[in-house]
Amino acid sequence: MGPAELAEILAGLDFSTEDENLIIGLENADDAIVYQLNSEQALIQTVDFFTPIVDDPYLFGQISAANSLSDVYAMGGKPFLAMNIVCFPGDLDKNILHEIMQGGLDKAKEAGITISGGHTIEDEEPKYGLVVSGLAHPDDILTNSKAKEGDKLILTKPLGTGIITTAFKADMAEQSPQHPAIKSMLELNKKAALLLQNLSVSACTDITGFGLIGHLEEMLSASNKGCKLWLDKLPYFAEVPELSKAGLVPGGLYRNKDTFSSNVTSFSDVIPFQEDLLYDPQTSGGLLIAMSDSEAKKFVADYNNQKRQDQQPKAAIIGEVTANSGITLKKRESNN
Ligand code: CO
Ligand code: CO
Ligand code: CO
């Protein structure tokens, strides 16, 4: 569902609560809700599920599980428990579902968490995801709302998974586990989250369905700030310019653009594929982090050093938080 439709549905529904232990609710479009259990522990809860984005059921299960786990990492938490959510057609080969759930199970193992139980219903199209619970010290919760002027913005994964999975569906790109976009979607945001534990983070979220600009706007509006984005610093998968030129972009990209582009001003020529990158809905995308210049440089150096064997683009500093609102697009060269 598009962000505008969702806002329409939520309007007038009163989710407010007297329960003071709910320390993060819906108000700032954070990645998960957070419930304080005691002075040492806060429970982080999130749920995500969606239709297959790759043909291989085992890969799909792994990607969906990595995507569901991501919200806990984005909140500064450590996931520990998950349940399966499954929709599956009655007339489809049950081995497919077995493979999907094996994918989820293996990803959970990699994350070091337990999956138990869940719920399955019959539906025309398969869907799979997880309900995930995590824990953090209440003081360590990372939210959207504390980005500060002068903070650098970091993105930990390349953009373009929506465009590439659209190309998969059109048989215009090869769906192998070695494809950089699939490798990226399979990757847990755990490493990034672990590194962040030793740094002072102002704000953090993960990039999923609303694209870079949508999730960035959630952070900026919760923090009452704006930002400069450096177009030439955005990390992306090598095939994206060509696929974007061929018009292989998902419908969600246009919905995101309709909803979020009114706050975006450009001060340099935007190449069409760069504009697509900004609004492309991501699956199991990277973390978007706001932190001081020195901490940001330290994070990117340490994180990329861990990933030096990796062929694909690594974490990058993509912009800077400003006091005045709105998102301004620039080239890094012209603005240091
Ligand atoms: Co999220
Ligand atoms: Co989510
Ligand atoms: Co968050």
CATH class of the largest domain: Alpha Beta
Radius of gyration: 19 Å
Q: Percent of residues in helical segments?
A: 25-40%
For the record, what is the CATH homologous superfamily label of the largest domain?
Answer: PurM-like C-terminal domain
From the spread of the alpha carbons, the general shape counts as: globular
In the sheet with the most strands, the strands line up as: 8-11-7-12-9-13-10
Number of domains: 2
Mean pLDDT: 94
Q: What is the CATH-assigned architecture of the largest domain?
A: Alpha-Beta Complex
Beta-strand level of the residues, as a percent range?
15-25%
The name CATH uses for the topology of the largest domain is: Phosphoribosyl-aminoimidazole Synthetase, Chain A, domain 2
Q: H/E series, N to C?
A: HEEEHEHEEEHHHEHEHHEHEHEE
Bound molecules: cobalt (II) ion
Number of helices: 11
| Spatial separation of the terminal alpha carbons | 38 Å
Number of strands: 13
Largest β sheet strand count, sense and barrel closure: 7 strands, mixed
Unreliable residue runs: none
Alpha-beta classification: alpha+beta
